[in-house]
Automatic annotation (TrEMBL):
One of its GO terms (cellular component) is membrane. Keywords: Membrane, Transmembrane, Transmembrane helix. Signal peptide: none annotated. This is LrgB family protein. It comes from Holdemania massiliensis.
């Protein structure tokens, strides 16, 4: 039985099965809070705890999945190309929106960390929470933060953003696809963009562009704040 847990195929297969079941659960229930990624994380934690599998072993077995993170992020450029006409028409709004989003994110993290009495190490780790993981980890390492804390913050931010933002727009009866796309990409990076693509190709294209620009602004702002 132990030999089954030694190879990477078990862990990769486990992740895929859990995620597919989580997607099926959300499709059946149609509950926004049952985000497939959130359900998968909770389920995998439970499975690893039940089987008493060390996290280090799980991490090593799923390294192939982690390796695909950057290429998967690059694929988000496809809807950007398809919607390039709309992107050019709304470039000013995108630049202003992403800059203010990145600035608000960094300032809010700094302010809340000081209010809660968190040390500088945690603050530096949380600063890039609203950008996609490859950029966030790079910013964290440059600032001397903890990558593990950064990745956790990025995941939580992405999940919450992909759930809350569409609901908020619906409640406020905001039907502007440009505003929704920019908000999703700026506030909840790749996870928000994936959700935006589900809503519409135009929203997905705008969100994909917002990810890159927000990442650039975050890198610049983090050097001065």
């Amino acid at each position: 039985m132990k030999d089954l847990f030694q190879g990477p195929f078990f862990f990769i297969g486990l992740c895929l099965i859990v995620y597919l079941l989580a997607c099926r659960l959300q499709r059946r229930t149609r509950q926004a809070w049952l985000n497939p990624l959130l359900v998968s994380i909770v389920s995998l934690i439970g499975i690893l705890s039940l089987l008493k599998i060390p996290y280090a072993q799980f991490k090593e077995g799923t390294s192939a999945i982690a390796m695909m993170l950057t290429p998967a992020t690059c694929v988000l450029a496809i809807p950007m190309v398809n919607q390039r006409k709309i992107l050019k028409q709304n470039l000013t709004a995108i630049l202003i929106g992403t800059f203010l989003g990145a600035l608000t994110s960094i300032l809010s993290v700094t302010f809340l960390c000081r209010i809660l009495g968190l040390n500088d190490l945690i603050t530096r780790s949380l600063l890039p929470k609203s950008v996609t993981t490859p950029i966030a980890v790079s910013v964290c390492e440059v600032n001397g933060g903890l990558p593990a804390v950064t990745v956790t913050a990025v995941i939580i931010t992405g999940i919450l953003g992909s759930i809350v933002i569409p609901l908020l727009f619906h409640k406020l009866k905001i039907k502007n696809s440009v505003a929704l796309g920019i908000t999703m990409g700026t506030a909840s990076h790749a996870m928000g963009t994936s959700k935006a693509i589900e809503i519409g190709e135009q929203e997905g294209g705008l969100a994909g562009l917002a990810i890159g620009i927000t990442g650039i602004f975050t890198v610049i702002l983090s050097l001065f704040l």
